[in-house]
Amino acid sequence: MTNSKDFLGKFVDVIIDKPLGSRHSEKYPHQIYPVNYGYVPNTISGDDEELDCYILGIFEPLKTFRGECIAIIHRTNDNDDKLIVVPEGRNYSNDEIRALTEFQERFFESEIIRNDVDFIFNKSIPELSVSNLENSVVFYKMLGFKVEYERPENKFVFLSMGDIQFMLQELSDNEKWSLSPLTYPFGNGINFQLKVDSVDKIYLKLKEHNYPIFFDIEENWYRQDDKFWGNKEFLVQDPDGFLLRFFEDLGEKEVI
Question: How many CB atoms lie within 10 A of CB 159?
């Protein structure tokens, strides 16, 4: 079987079998491809067929394409990978990749894999001062975060889950960022609203570990002008009391 990671950061030749604007199949005639979709010849993916590719950044139907693989969508419940291929010099964030491939990938659970050198930092990244870095890392890994990099000599880690990013650093005697002594809960007065694909998935992980939930799951609708925007959400405190508000988008409805 072809190792899809071998294509990361490299240029690949793709044969397009579903051009932009084409229908998925006779079985799903209403599913239209908003991007070009094809495969890398002479490869074998987890579904025993050629390795598939989404072509982003081209806005006309194609027959073939040569571009750079900037990421891989790895389906965790389907044993299949999809290459994200773009014109040279273009890049897309994980959120942009999710949005452009949602027409098909919404039916699967997946993670986006990139080269470390291609990691895209958010423009706003909270850094949390924690009392015990090891305990905090265990908690965030339980939720599904992964350690992107760390500096053990500074008791510092950089975590991500999709496009959610946090920096954690253990408190020290010469903590230059502290304005005054911290007391539990450290995050009093702030909550971090974190958009995820599945609130239930994270909620169940916490329940499996008997971790206390600060505010149970509920649906809330927030008015913005003449529309309501819906969130399915719950709140949990991390080991130092920082309040995390995980939510799933429920769409919109008109104000009556």
Answer: 22
Alpha carbon 139 to chain centroid distance? 18
User: Coil, helix or strand for 12?
Assistant: strand
CA angle 182, 148, 166 (to 5 degrees): 30
- pLDDT tens for 96-108 read 999 999 999 988 8
Q: How far is CA 144 from CA 60, 62, 67, 216, in A?
A: 37, 37, 31, 19
| Residue located via tokens 């889950």 | 161
The pLDDT confidence band at residue 207, using thresholds 50, 70 and 90, is very high
Q: Residue 157: what are its φ and ψ, rounded to 5°? A: -140, 150
Give the Cα separation of 46 and 211 in Å (integer). 36
149-163: pLDDT as tens digits: 899 999 999 999 888
Q: What is the spatial distance between Cα 152 and Cα 226, in angstroms, rounded to a whole number? A: 50
Domains of the chain in start order, with CATH, are: 4-118 (3.90.80.10), 127-254 (3.10.180.10)
**Up-side HSE of residue 68: CA atoms within 13 Å toward CB?**
12
Cβ-count burial 78-90 (b if 16+ within 10 Å, e if not) = eebbbbbbbeeee
Query: Quick one: residue 13, left, alpha or beta (phi over 0 = left, psi -120 to 50 = alpha)?
Result: beta
Q: For all residues of the chain together, what is the average pLDDT?
A: 90
Looking at residue 116, its pLDDT comes to: 63
The pLDDT of residue 174 is 60
Cα separation, 161 vs 59, in Å, equals 30
